[in-house]
Amino acid sequence: MTVSELIRASTEFLKEKNILEPRLSTELLLCHTLGCRRIDLYLQFDKPLLETELARFRESTRRRLRGEPVQYIVGETEFYGRPFHVTPDVLIPRPETELLCETVLEHIGKKFPDAAPVSILDIGTGSGNIPITLLLHAPGLRATGIDVSGKALDVARKNAERHQVADRLRLEKVDILEGDTDSLQTPFDIVVSNPPYVSADDFSDLQVEIRDYEPRVATTDESDGLTFFRAIADRAKHLLRHGGAVMLEIGMGQADAVQEIFTRKGLRPFHRQADLDGIDRILGFTYESKE
After folding, report:
1. Which one of 152, 185, 226, 248 is separated from 26 by 20 to 30 angstroms, measured CA to CA?
2. H or E segment at 252?
3. Helix, strand or coil for residue 27?
4. φ, ψ at 156 (rounded to 5°)
5. Overall pTM surpassing 0.90 (yes/no)
C-alpha cells in the first residue's frame, strides 16, 4: 500500500468511526510512523510502506479509535509555531492559550522597554508551553513555573531544555490551593495562568479525548470552575509588585464572575478579550499598592 492509498483509506475509515479531524489524525500518525514531516508525505505519495511500518501505523490507529488524542500517541504537539513534548501527565496546549501568550507579549511590549528585566509566574505550568513561549519572544524575561504535579514539571523541564531556555525558567512543585508560595522569589511583574476551569458538572460532557485521557487535575477544579481564580486573587497582592498584572485564560461564560472575584480583592480590570469564536477568553487585572 502506498502513502496516498493509506491516507485515503485511513481517513475514510476514521471518518466512518466519527473520529474528529480524520485526515489530520491520519497524516500526523503516518508522519510519526515514518519519522517525517507532513509536507514530506506529499512528496512521497507513491512510496509503498513496509509491513513493519504498516503494523506500527495500525497500532497507532487502534489507539486513536479508542479516543486517545493524537498528541499523546505521537508524543508532541505544536504551540505558537514550535513543537512541545506532551504526555498524559499534562494538558494538551490549545490555540486559545496562544491568545493568552500573545496578549502577555503585547503587554510586555507596551509596559517594559526593550530587553528590560521582567519576571513572570505561571501558575499550573503543565508542559511549560506558556513560560517557554514567552521566554523565546522576550529576551529580558525570567520566568517561574509552578505545578502541583511533579510529572508535569518533568515534561516542562524537557521542553525548556529542548528550546534552550532552561537557564531562565525556574520550576517548582507548588500547590496554589494550599497557599504554599513562600518559596517563590516574589514579587513578580506578571502572574499568568490557564488554570483548571471546567466545573464538575460540565466535566462529564467533555469530549472523550479530554474526559478520558487528559489529566483531570489539570482540567476541572471538581467544583464550580472558579476555585483557582479565587486562590490566585487571594494571593495576587503577595505575588505582584506595584503595577503588576494578572493575566488569565478563562472558560466560556466565566468573565463576569472572574472579574468580580478580582475586583473584590482590590485589583483593577484593564483587559478583556474574546477568542475567534467571540467567547470572552482572556482577562487582565492590575495591582496598585497603597504604599
Report:
1. 152
2. none
3. helix
4. -60, -40
5. yes
Strands in the chain per DSSP E: 76-79, 82-85, 118-123, 141-147, 169-173, 188-193, 240-249, 268-274, 280-287
CA–CA separation, 231 vs 226, rounded Å?
9
- Sign of torsion, CA 231 218 84 206? negative
Give how far Cα 72 sits from Cα of 8, 53, 81, 105, 209, Å. Answer: 23, 19, 18, 28, 10
Euclidean distance between CA atoms 84 and 91, whole angstroms: 12
- Single out the residue in 22, 39, 66 at which a domain terminates: 66
8 Å CB contact between 133 and 165: no
Domain of residue 61: give its range: 3-66
Please, which residues have CB within 8 angstroms of residue 186's CB and are 6 or more apart in sequence? 238, 239
Look at residue 188 and give its three-state secondary structure: strand
Indicate which CATH number applies to the domain containing 9: 1.10.8
pLDDT along the chain (291 residues), means of 10: 95 94 95 93 92 96 96 96 97 96 96 87 98 95 97 98 98 92 89 98 94 97 98 95 96 98 97 96 90 56
Q: Are the C-beta atoms of residues 99 and 273 closer than 8 Å to each other?
A: yes
